[in-house]
Amino acid sequence: MSGPERITLAMTGASGAQYGLRLLDCLIQEDREVHFLISKAAQLVMATETDVVLPAKPQAMQAFLSEYTGAAAGQIRVFAKEDWMAPPASGSGAPTAMVMVPCSTGTLSAIATGACNNLIERAADVALKERRQLILVPREAPYSSIHLEHMLKLSNLGVTILPASPGFYHQPQTIDDLVDFIVARILNLLNIPQDMLPRWGEHHIVSDD
Q1: Percent of the chain predicted with pLDDT > 70
Q2: Residues annotated as binding site for FMN?
Q3: Which keywords does UniProt give here (predicted)?
């Protein structure tokens, strides 16, 4: 198996719930164990942007997402925002990779300043202190200087900043194609196989001219 076996997936209150849901589905299909964290703002955005309405309680949410993605028993583990005993809260228990998609600029600020007011922020802090892979997918427009300063600070610490800015060179035909563009880039960074987006040059035909 290439790529990490366990991944923390966090969703916060920026637009782009489709990215997080699609990534969750892909991780499950690739037999990864997912530690799932979501803010209340993200749940509100998800209900606004999609037809997915998550139950409020972690256990019920876990059952819902397992059925939604076809996950095996125990493959998705959902933790409440103040569950300080959850594996992502400690370097000795956290997965080796964490993806936050979408990442709100408020959460971006909290991570950049070392705040640990909830489990999502603490999980990101753990990834930083343990020098583990941390991928943030912000979705905001335009970015203020404060946002950009936080991104630069985190990038200098080894965090991958992957804005939710889909490309068009693959000639997308649907919104799902645009979502898959970003999700495929995340999977590439995690070194997890994907067939949604060919790597640049894979189908390039060399000309004799």
Answers
A1: 95
A2: 13-15, 39, 104-107, 116, 139
A3: Flavoprotein, FMN, Prenyltransferase, Transferase
Q: What whole-number distance in Å separates Cα of residue 52 and Cα of residue 2?
A: 30
120-151 residue pLDDT tens: 999 999 999 999 999 999 999 999 999 999 99
In this structure, what token pair is assigned to residue 68? 């939604």
- Residue range 71-128, pLDDT digits in tens: 999 999 999 999 999 999 999 999 999 999 999 999 999 999 999 999 999 999 999 9
Helices (H), the chain: 17-29, 40-49, 58-69, 105-113, 119-129, 145-156, 175-190
Binding site for dimethylallyl phosphate, by residue number, is 169, 185
The whole-model pTM stands at 0.93
Q: Which domains does the chain have, with CATH numbers?
A: 6-190 (3.40.50.1950)
Q: Between 203 and 91, where is the model more confident?
A: 91
CA–CA dist 136, 209 (Å, integer): 42
Q: Which residues does the annotation place in the binding site?
A: 13-15, 39, 104-107, 116, 139, 169, 185
